[in-house]
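TEACHING EXERCISE
Course module: macromolecular assemblies
Task: Read the component lines below, then compare them to the predicted structure of the full complex.
Student: A.B.
Group: 4
Components provided:
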Amino acid sequence: MLYFAELAGKPVVSSDGASIGRLHDFYFLAADQPLITKLSVTSPVGPLYIPITSVKTINGTIILSPDHESVEPTEQELSIRNHLLDLQIIDIKGNKVVRVNDVVIQQKPYYVIAGVDVGVLGIARWFNVEQSLNKLLARFGKTVTSDFLSWDDVQPIELSRGKVMLKREETKLTRLAPEDLADHLERLSLKNLTKILDLLPSTYEADVIQNLNVGRQRDLLRNIKPEKAANILARIDPDEAADILLTLSERRRKLILPFLPPEAKTPIDYLVSLSKTDIGDLATNEYATADPEELAGKVKTRLKIEAAKLSQLSYIYVMNKKKELVGVFNLQELLQQDNDAPVYKFMTPNVVVISLTTPKEIALKKMIKYKLYALPLLNDKREILGIVTIDDLLETMERRLI
Amino acid sequence: MIQIILHYIKRKWARLFIILAIIGPGLITAFADNDAAGVSVYSASAATFGYQILIITIPMTILLALTQEIGARIGIVADKGLGDLIREQYGVRTAITMFILLFIVNFTVVVLDLAGIKSALALFGLSPIFIPIIVGLLFLFIVMVQYKTTERFFLFTIGFYLVYMLSAVLAKPDWGLALRSMVIPTGPFTPRFIYTAIAVVGTTITAWGQFFISSTVKDKHLTVEHIRYNRWEVYFGAFLTDLFSFFMMIAVIATLFIHGIQINGAAEASIAIRPFAGNLAGVLFGVGLFVAGLFGCIIVPLSTSYAFSEFFGYPGSLNEDFHKSRLFYTILLIQLAAGTLIILFPAVTLFSITVIGNFVNGAVLPVIFYFLYKFVNNERIMGEHRNSKLQNVLLVSAGVFITIASLFSVAGQLLHW
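Instructor-supplied answer key:
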């Protein structure tokens, strides 16, 4: 294993002894097997890009064969410094977004990027204090292990180099649940969000988009080409698609609609036309909530008291500290739990929701489709504005239905 | 239900609503500039230099508006904070250096704000022994309470500034001279004066304010359509901040400076609001200083912790649970605890350290400006939203000017020019 922090800045010489410069960067192919193809050297004559085939050894001093030539990197080649180091990646195994502190290179049989180090030692290595830090901590009876993530378990976020698209085989992200990936992607810039979505197989991409919060969905559809937007919408559930479309301005909607394939356009057109009905006035704030960390036993005792004040109680909505809706469970699920089970263990993270622009008809369709008695009404930030219950909804639609 | 009602308002008053929805980062940072560190240095400088100090108000306001707008614009376009960008563009080594620097300057502000709490306690005859207890409660408050609640709570400090405004008017200052002094220098630029002026600039335009605005804007995920609204909010915030500072200084000048009273402690400083508050001046000033101190003690350590998470990518947000972002809270606690230790020394009082503490903040500004300049003119990051020529000229000359002025004033003080 070689660490980039230890290699960067090392002298590069030719095997005939001539000094060439110092190692600056490595270039690699963005693929399942990130093969290192070139190294870049800062030299008195400017930057040199040396193919890895001209490299004799890398350990200690970097020695090149005497007949080496400089070849500009192609668009297929990404660089450690510009696309990986110090940037954020998605840690697929740990299901979180972290920063790369160091890059680990494997030597045999080829030079390959083995993975990244996201731990404290990765930072310490840049200051040559890795050993001292370990010794110091050992004195306090602690050890730090390298926080190594293998290439299979990471997805770089900054992928741009020219117009190159990474290959579709890059499907390791699909190991994450779509709602989890949506959670991570929500925090990225729109540019990176779009790029990562492009990597995903289309059905999975649609799942992820459905799970983004309304604000992010709107930003996304506003900023991508209408064709592309229509393409995404056609792949998701028409109810959801109409719901997302209704959060856009009418002008933007009219740009997107013509690009929908006919089989998707008819139902979506119809659903969008229902938008005049307003769901906001149906919402009630009589609902129960729980904290993800709360224990089932505590929820049970708490609800025993709260239930007296509610006119109905079917679902308990789970909200994080930001007051964002993160999950849901029903009474039946709650009663089956041991008292020491935390809420996040048994809640359903994938919640069926509606927004203020959702037509009543879509709300009803969702209730029937997912067999739910009530749906939470969310704002752009995924906060609950209230819930809409099936009986209230039916009451207002009675005349049309019967 | 309120949000549902807002939805109806939104339909009719979409434009107004957009403005209301994005209000926050710019105004909050603007108000936060008038923390205990700010109140003390505005008072001290005005008591010493009188009308002469007003010459810096106009350039200071322009610079505040300019830099905060750049910081916010970077946050909007890049969807990244200043800490993120420094780390991504310059690597670990620069990130650590910048973090240490930020930690030091923010720490001086924390100490000043704790000193403000100490002075307020002294005004009520309470022992400094209460400070550790207050800080402990404060830490619990930050951990337990939503940041949004905190934000709203501190809008109360505006009341304190209004007291200054009324006092300034009631004290009948020489308005003609005050306005003239803003454009025409009325005294010599001695090293001592420049030193104090940099301290005043340093409490208004702060390193932490720059980090803070870009991260809050990033957290709100404002998109480029918001640039225009956000710009006006930031400009308005800068104007309001300095309007408050202006009246604060006027009140001090009309009460303390013209009678030749030097500020040695909160008791003298409170005289400035006597025209309005009368015999209640001491109490009111005490309460105001206390709240302003608390405000600073929350927002400044927080901005250090936020910057840390950006630099090193650890999960960090006030809205995460304690065990998830332990490091975030540890850094918060270190600043407050170390600050408390320092402040327990009897010799450390707010008005003895206010100028030097704020000077340090002013002197590091050119470094922050350098990064702002680099990022905001980087086409890969900003695309078409790069700086205009005028903005660049202003930013660069401000950086150069502050650097020279800082060196000159320190050299002058050391060599007794």
